[in-house]
Design brief:
With 281 residues, the chain is an alpha+beta fold. The protein has three domains: 59 residues, RNA-binding S4 domain (Structural Genomics Hypothetical 15.5 Kd Protein In mrcA-pckA Intergenic Region, Chain A, Roll), CATH 3.10.290.10; 100 residues, Pseudouridine synthase I, catalytic domain, N-terminal subdomain (Alpha-Beta Plaits); 78 residues, Alpha-Beta Plaits (2-Layer Sandwich). Helix content is 21%, strand content 27%. The chain is built from seven helices and 17 strands. Strands 7, 8, 9, 10, 13, 14, 15, 16 and 17 form a nine-stranded mixed beta sheet that branches. Helix 1 packs across helix 2. The longest helix has 14 residues. Belongs to the pseudouridine synthase RsuA family. InterPro entries: PsdUridine_s_RsuA/RluB/E/F_cat, PsdUridine_synth_cat_dom_sf, PsdUridine_synth_RsuA/RluA, PsdUridine_synth_RsuA/RluB/E/F, PsdUridine_synth_RsuA/RluB_CS, RsuA_PseudoU_synthase, S4_RNA-bd, S4_RNA-bd_sf. Keywords: Isomerase, RNA-binding.
Length: 281
Amino acid sequence: MTSSTDFDSADGAGGGTLPEGVRLQKVLAAAGVASRRVSEELITAGRVRVNGEIVRELGRRIDPETDKVAVDNTAVQLDTTKRYVMLNKPVGIVSSLADQHGRPDLSRYTSLYEERLFNVGRLDAETSGLLILTNDGELAHVLAHPSFGVMKTYIAQVEDRVSPQTISKLTKGIELDDGPIVADKARLLDSSDRSSLVEVTLHSGRNRIVRRMLEEVGHPVIELVRRQFGPLHLGSLKAGDVRDLTRDELGALLTLSRAAKAPDTGDARSAGGNSTGDARG
């Protein structure tokens, strides 16, 4: 986080005071967006926004701790102390930093980093796939809270042959014990007499929702993997491996987070919950 010593404000000769804040091009360079010279070109080209407004003046100063900056409509993280890690959680790992029953947990991955990381949402022990680890509590709250409706995509291997009619049921809606549920998207990837592969995308934050949906339509889950979380894709990351998010991935994630916190979404904090409250598959 930028300290007060990084600001350009100071008492000048003769008692004058320089403008407060840090020059925008300096902030962009420090955030790793581009060199200071290229950052100046981005500003004059009208590609940089501060708090939603286009800035073209090279003399613009900002507060990196409070102002929100975007380049080409993609959010930029100005706080270089924040870390964002993608984990392909293996089966058998519980989504806890210290499991009270002594089961293998996420501490084996968070201990690899100097920062104090925690997980964004949860996956059941028997579900594998994409899980975010970070020390950014604000972003974690937005992404994990059910009221913000972040899209998640799962691939499930299920029992028996799945028909197109069953896929249609998932997208039209089914009734579960805790109320109706509708998949935002569902498609059949492969099918045989013994098992099928189904892709399900939904924004619901209800517990074990994918497993319960597929059980309800007569196809219990054999194996479940979360392949996508918001704009992030698991890609070729192997089970048990971790990596830092790329700049583009982080920008997309921050952009999603800021959009979710827009005034018309309301403040999810007033609804209760915590940063680990999303669907567990």
